[in-house]
Design brief:
By secondary structure, the chain is of the alpha+beta class. The chain folds into two domains: 163 residues, endopeptidase domain like (from Nostoc punctiforme) (endopeptidase fold (from Nostoc punctiforme), Alpha-Beta Complex), CATH 3.90.1720; 213 residues, Orthogonal Bundle (Helix Hairpins). It is built from seven helices and eight strands; from the N terminus they run H-H-H-H-H-E-E-H-H-E-E-E-E-E-E. The strands form three sheets. A four-stranded antiparallel beta sheet has the order 4-5-6-7. A hairpin with a 5-residue loop joins strand 4 and strand 5. The longest helix has 138 residues.
């Protein structure tokens, strides 16, 4: 008989097989159905979620650092702006002082102009008096020299009078000349003082105006830099707020995924505990039925019941390669690592030998030989007590289990595992089962 057939109707076969337990009422096991698990995000989902959180946290840290740098630079700019404003204020004070000085200088220049005008009048008056004295002396024909005094005097008293008059004229003329020179000097001094004061005031005012303009330009530049910095700071702050929102969302999503994983882990742990308790109860019940049944020969549904009970009574026994036979668990065949030494248990075919020996059926030791120990039936027609087999593509059969109904099977799975009841796997499952009862 060919071992490999068409598997296109495999899903349908399993569906039909899951109903097979109802065909033999009383022979199937009462295996409870587990509730559907909660969502379980994959490890890749969790990794990507954590990477997203880490990336957003890195962005927030980078933007926070940028904000700190910008804050520091803003403080520097504000300090520079304050200094520029202080300079501008000082320049304004200097300009006001220079303008006040220029106003005062203009007043002094105006006063000097008036003084100059007065000095000019004084010069003109002094020159007029001098001209008058000279003219009078000339018109009167006075000889004010020593010879004139002697020749013109008519008596000693007249001589004295003439001498006094001549002296008076001389002193008046001298005073007039001194007044003229004094007026000229005062006019020259007033003109020089007025020009110097006005030039100094104009120079100071021009310098103050230049300094004020430079200070105003510096303030304007500092204000523009501060505004640009404030705009940059606001932009980065907005970016950080946006990334912070993304980080919050990523952390929330990550927390949600991890909460789902936690709920799934809790569900899985609870199901494992419930499954273990259920399997212990099923094992103990099966063991009790096996013990009470004794060794009497049975047929039909009772034989199937006994075979299943014997297999179920071994739930929890460890897997040992080469272990188990018709009498029960045993030490296995030592492998290259000696892992089967001093260990007692079942491998997959040893478990089948023990189960079927209870109904008087002696099976071969190896699973591929057990496949040929009975009638091959399609998986679509499977019934409790039938053996199902697994193989990898292009390789011999390497595993056997027993269908117990309700879409489940009992098996001794692999090294490190224990005899267990699990949903019947589809991967590698042969489309034919073997029925010996």
């Amino acid at each position: 008989m060919r071992l490999v057939g068409s598997r296109r109707t495999f899903v349908l076969a399993l569906l039909v097989a899951s109903l097979g337990g109802a065909l033999l009422t009383g022979t199937g096991t009462a295996l409870a159905q587990e509730p559907a698990p909660p969502p379980n995000p994959s490890d890749d989902d969790l990794r990507q979620s954590r990477e997203t959180v880490d990336a957003r946290a890195g962005d927030v840290a980078r933007l926070t650092s940028t904000l700190a740098e910008l804050d520091s630079r803003t403080d520097d700019l504000q300090a520079a702006l304050a200094a520029q404003r202080e300079t501008a204020e000082a320049a304004l004070v200097d300009l006001q002082s220079a303008q006040d000085a220029a106003t005062a200088a203009r007043k002094r220049a105006e006063a000097a102009r008036i003084e100059t005008q007065a000095a000019t009048v004084a010069i003109d008056e002094a020159r007029a008096r001098l001209d008058e004295i000279v003219s009078t002396t000339y018109l009167q024909g006075l000889d004010t020299g020593p010879l004139g005094l002697l020749t013109e005097a008519t008596s000693p008293d007249d001589l004295l009078a003439r001498a006094e008059y001549t002296d008076l004229i001389a002193r008046t003329q001298l005073q007039a000349q001194e007044g003229l020179e004094r007026a000229r000097v005062e006019k020259a001094n007033a003109d020089s003082s007025a020009r110097a004061a006005l030039e100094e005031a104009k120079k100071a005012e021009a310098e103050a105006a230049t300094a004020k303009a430079a200070a105003d330009d510096a303030v304007a530049a500092a204000q523009a830099a501060a505004r640009a910095q404030a705009a940059k700071l606001a932009e980065v702050a907005a970016q950080r707020a946006d990334v912070q929102r993304q980080l919050d969302a990523a952390e929330s999503a990550d927390a949600g995924l991890r909460a789902q994983r936690s709920r799934f882990d809790d569900w899985q742990r609870r199901m494992a505990e419930e499954r273990a308790a259920r399997e212990r109860a099923e094992r103990d019940a099966a063991a009790a039925r096996v013990a009470s049944a004794g060794s009497a020969a049975v047929r039909g549904g009772a034989a199937v019941r006994r075979v299943i009970d014997r297999a179920m009574s071994q739930i929890g026994v460890q897997y040992v390669w080469g272990g188990g036979n018709g009498r029960g668990p045993s030490t296995g065949i030592p492998d290259a690592f000696g892992s089967s030494l001093n260990r007692v248990g079942f491998d997959c075919s040893g478990l089948m030998q023990y189960a079927f020996s209870g109904a008087g059926v002696s099976l071969p030791r190896v699973s591929r030989n057990q496949f040929h120990a009975g009638e091959q039936v399609p998986v679509s027609a499977i019934r409790p007590g039938d053996m199902v087999f697994y193989q990898n593509p292009g390789a011999p059969i390497h595993h056997v289990a027993m269908y117990v109904g309700d879409g489940k099977m009992i098996e001794a799975p692999y090294t490190g595992g224990n005899v267990r009841v699990v949903p019947m796997r589809t991967k590698g499952l042969l489309p034919e089962a073997t029925r010996v009862l």
